[in-house]
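agent: user wants the full assembly modeled, not chains individually. Plan: 1) parse entity lines 2) check alphabet per entity 3) run joint structure prediction 4) return tokens. Steps 1-2 passed, four entities, 682 residues total. Proceeding.
--- entities ---
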Amino acid sequence: MTSGEPTHLPTLEEVARVAGVSRATVSRAINGGSRVSPQAQAAVDRAVAQLGYTPNRAARSLVTRRTDSVALLVPETGARFVSDPFLTGVLQGVTTALAGTELQLVLLVAQHAGDTARQLRYLRSGHVDGALVTSHHGNDELALEMSRLGLPFVFGGRPFDPDSVAVPYVDADNVNGGRLAAEHLIGTGRRRLATVAGPADMSAAVDRLDGWRRALEEAGLHADAVEHGDFTIDGGTAAMERLLRHHPDVDGVFVASDPMASAALQVLRNFGRRVPDDVAVVGFDDTMLATTTTPPLTTVRQPAEEHGERMVEMLLEQLAGSPPRLGGEILPVELIVRESA
Amino acid sequence: MTSGEPTHLPTLEEVARVAGVSRATVSRAINGGSRVSPQAQAAVDRAVAQLGYTPNRAARSLVTRRTDSVALLVPETGARFVSDPFLTGVLQGVTTALAGTELQLVLLVAQHAGDTARQLRYLRSGHVDGALVTSHHGNDELALEMSRLGLPFVFGGRPFDPDSVAVPYVDADNVNGGRLAAEHLIGTGRRRLATVAGPADMSAAVDRLDGWRRALEEAGLHADAVEHGDFTIDGGTAAMERLLRHHPDVDGVFVASDPMASAALQVLRNFGRRVPDDVAVVGFDDTMLATTTTPPLTTVRQPAEEHGERMVEMLLEQLAGSPPRLGGEILPVELIVRESA
DNA sequence: CTCGATCGTGAGAGCGCTCTCACACCCACG
DNA sequence: CGTGGGTGTGAGAGCGCTCTCACGATCGAG
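--- prediction returned ---
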């Protein structure tokens, strides 16, 4: 059944022999076929079909110095990546956008915290033509390293200091998202507002908090009820519990990710608060989770798939030779009103 | 890591020159280093570190005929893959298990239904050393094709007819899962039982239904209340609505995946049924979703990560030269009791 | 000592492909 | 009829690596 003997793969040489032309002509015929006579082209096509020929990528890559593959670099450990519905949405957009190309996706997931050195070494060694970088924490060290690499790349999410660290990136309009959440809660009469923000070392979290704060201040409300979570369910549970302890009179909460928001709903229920009657909750993401909670989440929708697709498009531009456009493309967000607020 | 020049990558040749030995010796020193004197080894190590040398994979692959990468073949379209928490759990296990090796993961997601021809062509062309195949539908065509390829591979989920189609695979004990769900519902006094099963063309769905039916029959209960869904939320909603229409007196439901079970909870609520008071619900998977629903799901836990890890281990055995063990490894499942049943 | 075995080493032949270059051929133009 | 400029083609030189093979040095056994 599974033969131990790996089948012999046909080479360019053999195609050339069968087609009755030279290797060079076959190569031309296969790659876009400029300067190839119709007869030669037809003969090659026939031979290729007959032999079931596919070019050997390694050999081609050796001379062209291209690999026809790009990396998706995930500085998180696998667990975190895969349990975040937003990130999997981005992954979906990436695979969709790549489907129309010849490029393969190599998944480069961090093995443990602080594993970026290994990942960078891989990128530096010419194994891929470009890289997509998702979900980056902390300072802009990674962005700086990537810039030094001289490899085309695109970030998902802006760097912390986009003025001094100029990299191409795609981001959601997180500031406006925070503002939309605030305005909705204020507009529906809530006055004791609080937020479960994301990690203070992620720009997405900072921006959402920023928009939130500004909207509250403009409305003359206090914006000091803030607890941070790490965007996960467990982190959301802990943060929401702290929030209720410190601010028991809260009547409206903006929770900066859907996983954390679903956790917040559980905590509120455990504390005997009704949602939305006693406390209104607004989430962020609008992933699958938002529709499965009770009550369904009112949440700020960010377009995860489109996020991934745009990242690929910006990378393709660079691979086609355009200089990287330093700076970001900001995708719009939108408030989706369901029942939790 | 100093200049931003179009970096010239150091070659074996240069390492050899710096170390004062021949290319052959450097090659030996880098690959396991048998038959290399300690002095030579040390000189090479020093040169490698100094130059920041990394072997060119394409060149190596060209001669060794190995690529040091494996494919994760997803016959589903991206959307489906990424929105299934079980599959993302498997992906996590795969990346974890691969982390300890030199192997890279190439994601091969179907571009559209019936795209397997393209995927098979890719596999056949020697671009990867092996393949992991997840979530396969329908007949055993793909399993047969894979067998013919002569490429090491492992399936996630058994083939439909494991006796005539002998392939290596990892699977959960789905039959027992269906049984556990049934026994729990019966044991808590439910008598009007129904199930939302998975697609009839997936072995996992068939097995869960099988175990369920057998347990019901052994208890002398009717096992004819069955609706099929496609494992997604939307599919679960539609199936649960049909179920309630055809069997309005149901008091216990086994829903064959967590996404479908979360949908079932919504439908039941919309129909004014209380869970678990009026209707008890048991899900399958025990993914993140199971804890975010109201009430939290009682569900059959299948070890998604372990599933992925075992697949990798079985593939590694083959890559190391062992003949593929035709037949399956069945992972145990476990009932997790929460509040929905 | 002599002899064969063992060890560390380097020379060199490719792996399958692309790409430059030279060349033969054809056509229009003066 | 030359001449110049296309156009299609093939020969051949590598890309960076591994691996076989031959060779001198070393060593223990006889």
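agent: reporting back. The CA atoms of residues 103 and 250 of chain A lie 50 Å apart. The longest strand of chain A covers residues 69-77.
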